[in-house]
Amino acid sequence: MSEKKIPYKIYLEESEMPKAWYNVRADMKNKPAPLLNPETLKPMTEEELSVVFCQELVKQELDNENPYIEIPKKIRDFYKMYRPAPLVRAYCLEEKLDTPAKIYYKFEGNNTSGSHKLNSAIAQAYYAKEQGLKGVTTETGAGQWGTALSMACSYLDLDCKVYMVKCSYEQKPFRREVMRTYGAGVTPSPSETTEVGRKILAAHPGTTGSLGCAISEAVEVATHTPGYRYVLGSVLNQVLLHQSIIGVETKTAMDKYGIKPDIIIGCAGGGSNLGGLISPFMGEKLRGEADYHFIAVEPSSCPSFTRGVYAYDFCDTGMVCPLAKMYTLGSGFIPSANHAGGLRYHGMSSVLSQLYEDGYMEARSVEQTSVFTAAEQFARVEGILPAPESSHAIKVAIDEALKCKETGEEKTILFGLTGTGYFDMVAYEKFHNGEMQDYIPTDAELQAGFDGIPKFPGNME
């Protein structure tokens, strides 16, 4: 098909929206390792997980066999408020870089939460409502997930309690106020409101917090409050399943115009957007139908893939959650207060960790000043102010496009633009004022995190 016919923005019709989520685990030869009970070291049962999570979500969490899971009509109707999301051909960026590469990005920022997180928030809130629960608890880093969940809960008349990483709570007061506008209660974490929060504060006075701390507090409140369950915005199998709508929409749009990406890039913190974007393409690769080069991009300050170890570890700092097998820096690792709050997590999704271990993906770490340089460059030519998290993918997409300029290759590059950065102006201000610093943890600092990983036969061996 003639290149001229590819519009700047490709929008699907509502009738073309996916009616099912795609479960990449069904096509994985090596399934992700099961969650373990930290006391018995045996796989968590449906019954055990149902104490923390909604029953239907537990089924999705444990389902490694069904490739497609139907999206309930009420969720599809909610999706129509902001989906289908556009697939954008970055013509302006290509011209500015003077590259023969063709660059596309899937833009997930067309909603008030400003990110892709709403795709899973509405699903998790829906299943909580269907179960007859009163409310849910969660954690949030940069605030996109907390905002998304508060929106979904207000739509369904559910109570929403959010534990927000303390440095983000202070850096992003407006994000906090959006959550409160939608009716959520927001507490800076670690806090004095939970037993685990008090313990963390006693051990680390003055800590700026981490997603691992906030998870511990949210889980404690969910398990000690009747009628509540815990929901999570990333890492879990169920979340990657819901986020597959990103990739399925992207692939449908690309197939419509006969476009096949060579390189697919996503930022990686816990793995929700990366897993969602790549899933149908990864499915093709796993089934031997097509080949793609996948690149996960993470911050140098929190390098789970590039410098972490593949082992069973706690998902949270307070060690109250199940053990997940993942690339991890240790649940006690508290990253520096870098400005991509959504990527400040010590571990990586078990699905993505298994795919990475099996050699299906590459991972790169990048420093935040280079990330903000790329973000600014992108904003100036494509007209969207990107979130710091998304800008990690932008940085590597630009790197790959410039390599094509050197080699003359006309590669097709796809990346996930997970959301907007309008609530991240403190970070942009520090960058513009020259006050932003790059922080790379030393081997000794990483070792302190590794030392806290549970020791049992077969782990870390």
TrEMBL record:
This protein's UniProt keywords: Amino-acid biosynthesis, Aromatic amino acid biosynthesis, Lyase, Pyridoxal phosphate, Tryptophan biosynthesis
Names of required cofactors: pyridoxal 5'-phosphate
UniProt keyword Lyase, yes or no: yes
Catalytic activity: (1S,2R)-1-C-(indol-3-yl)glycerol 3-phosphate + L-serine = D-glyceraldehyde 3-phosphate + L-tryptophan + H2O
Stored InterPro entries: Trp_synth_b-like, Trp_synth_beta/beta-like, TrpB-like_PALP, TrpB-like_PALP_sf
EC number: 4.2.1.20
Annotated Tryptophan synthase beta chain-like PALP domain residues: 82-419
DNA repair as UniProt keyword: no
Complex and partners: Tetramer of two alpha and two beta chains.
Function: The beta subunit is responsible for the synthesis of L-tryptophan from indole and L-serine.
Entry similarity comment: Belongs to the TrpB family.
NCBIfam families hit by this protein: PRK12391.1, trpB_rel
Protein name from the UniProt record: tryptophan synthase
Source organism: Faecalicatena acetigenes
